[in-house]
Amino acid sequence: MKAIILAAGQSKRMKSSLLKTLHPMCGKPVIKHITDACRQAGVTDITIVIGNSDEQTQKIYTQDGVLQDGIRFAVQRDPQGTGHAVQSALEASAHFADDDEILVLAGDMPLLTADFIRGMADCYRSMQSEGQGCAAVVSAVHWPTNTDFGHVYADADGFFIETVEARDLTEAHEHTPLRGTSCYLFNGAALKQGLKQLTNANAQNEYYLTDVPKHIKGNGGLGLVKVFCSDDDTAIFTGINTQVQLAEAAAVMRRRINIAHMVNGVRMIDPTTTYIDTDVQIAPEAIIYPGVVIEGASTIAQGARILAHSVISDASVGAFTQIGPFAYLRPGTVIGEKCRIGNFVEVKNANIGNQTNAAHLTYIGDADVGSQVNVGCGVITANYDGKNKSRTTIHDRAFIGSNTNLIAPVEIGEGAFIAAGSTINKSVPPSGFAIARARQEVKENWNNDPRNHAKKS
To answer: How far apart are CA 203 and CA 200, in angstroms?
Structure first.
């Protein structure tokens, strides 16, 4: 099965310089959710139709200058409707064969699932296996209220009659509860023939893809057109045209993500205020508190506790470790097992060994910290000198006193002890003691001497 994804829309209603298909949602651009669903459903070849000068979409499918396998691009240079967009895809490449199964999807529907795509394919293939010669499958959903979706008409046996766009409806059209979802599966030859018969005789003067099934149906030699009525929640057909719709779709996806984790044994105190990206992995028995944000490809191991309002971004948390509340783990961070990373602690691009504690108000950046290390309150690894970033190494069982500054590059030996309030810019040997602070001076009865309070003239 091959796919054509239509992503050449101008996104005017988003009121953003970023294309609607590229807006981030639960850790990925909108369109990436669609291509991922296609791959999970067994689609091996995906052509994305983009507009003129759209280099941004191409970049998300390119790594080190190489396009991902199975991804192609076609440019719709003079947009004239969805039918014209599909024609642009066919003209851009000769790899669409007459006997191909060609899936056509809108690029702004990130909630579509692999199960839905497989359902369309099963409908198509079951008709083929029964010798009925299926030429196309039109996806529709029962949606009795009026929407912007096209109105789909089918006969009593579920075979397609026509689709009428909402803006083209007249009083002569009978009521139908079926609405088009902008999802189609075509036989290659039938699609090509149907596109040739399109006209732009409609309110928008555009070539509608919705008219292609009608032309295929009218040409009896091409085969039958079946309407596939999905049992999925209508939310999966949400198109992203405004910031409001983006937020609504993201809420649906977050609920879908959170339910999957809870079914797998993760406990969430309040799923409605828990924000987890699609590629995050969480092991059973982990506990996630309200207000937590887990982003990117983060991993949370068994039994970990992520306390309220912590943010974890492309980081790894070990088994039975406690994070937060109000902690921030930045990309490249790996926290070991049975650690405690407490409130207002930020860790960036650092490795933290097992049973190490940094309980509060600490910054650990570009560091390698061993096991059973105590990092006191207010400790900072000063990793940036204005030009370069350097690493700090702290070996096992070291004790870093409160309010210590570690000026990288620096190494603290195994079992070393750093006195509170020190600024350390030289390495400390194993089991060594380092103190680097101004000597305290006490002047007795200073406050009782009136001369110390006299106003200066």
So the answer is: 9
